[in-house]
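In this supplementary section we document a worked example of the pipeline. Step one takes a protein sequence of length 380 as its only input; no multiple sequence alignment statistics are reported here. Step two produces a three-dimensional model, which step three serialises into structure tokens for compact storage. The input and output of this example are shown verbatim.
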Amino acid sequence: MTLAAAIIVAGGKGTRSGRAGPKQFETLLGRSVLDWSIEAFRAHPNVGQIVVVASVGRETEGCGEGVVRVPGGPSRTQSVRNGLAALDLSPDTPVLIHDAARPGLSQAMISSLLEALAKADAVAPALPVSDALKTSRDGKLVTVSRDGLFRVQTPQAFRLGAIRAALDAAGADLVDDLAAMEASGARVDLIPGDERLHKITFPEDFDMVAKLLSPASSMPRIGKGFDVHAFEPGDHVTLCGVAIPHDAKLKGHSDADAAWHALTDAILGAVALGDIGDHFPPSDARWKNADSAIFLKESVRLAESEGYAVSSCDITVICEAPKVKSHREAMRVRTAELLGLPLSAVSVKATTTEGLGFTGRREGIAAEAIAVLVPSVSAR
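The serialised model returned by step three reads:
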């Protein structure tokens, strides 16, 4: 079978998406919207060359190795022409033209399109319209029959020579590339579409697509952390960023905030990214006397880079002294502020070991934490 080529159109401005930059370069579950489509094509055994058509100045973003990059044009149709021009292949080569704003491309969809192209001049996935349709005529609503109406998606499959000829004969811009093929009298077939190919257009689409693309496992992830620090001479301990008066302080390379260290490990553990020592080794002078808020914020950022956000946490401080209870609310507030969570999602408790062990002998403080993480669209 001749390997197909894929063209990903990523030149739009995405002004309706509510994001600061083009939607195709925004983060979705730990990777850019564009990268979702690149990786889908790259993983398919019957796809050879991949071309990304992006706006001028952004041609190299989010592409990686093995991807041809070309600048877009003033219209979508011209951008597609630019992508086709980058292909030095036989006219019979199958070519898949795809919008970067549809990140939910599956291997099964690519296979279905290529298989259907053997019996047609052009193929596209489509979903039947299920909602009632209305139009306004002379200020009155009129019902439009939805019989035979479809929502057409991408990728759309063509033979390279045929789509080039059809676009050359078409106008400056089209609703989609199928319109050019239809105008040429070609046979166009539709195959069943996929709800996961929903197009990101408006701000709420990011949440919708994130839910569609989250693994069936989109169940929360849970991490557990533990930390311990010994006492040394001083006049206070720091727990959850709160200074608590005491006749000793906690010994450590940083500020020795055992509670936040345990929480940092819990967050890292939930996304399998090691522990606090991997990211902030005590051998590194940069972290000498560092505020543990730095560690906690970085663990949140790392989790979000994997597509997860902290949903709630539970911290238990274990010590005979100092007494923590009167400081618990301040500790909850500080932790909630740093994580960007409502106070109701942050629990802080304290307990003793009834005089047993090193904490019972008042030699130091231990802390445990559990963090619950849920799939997130992007970093906060």
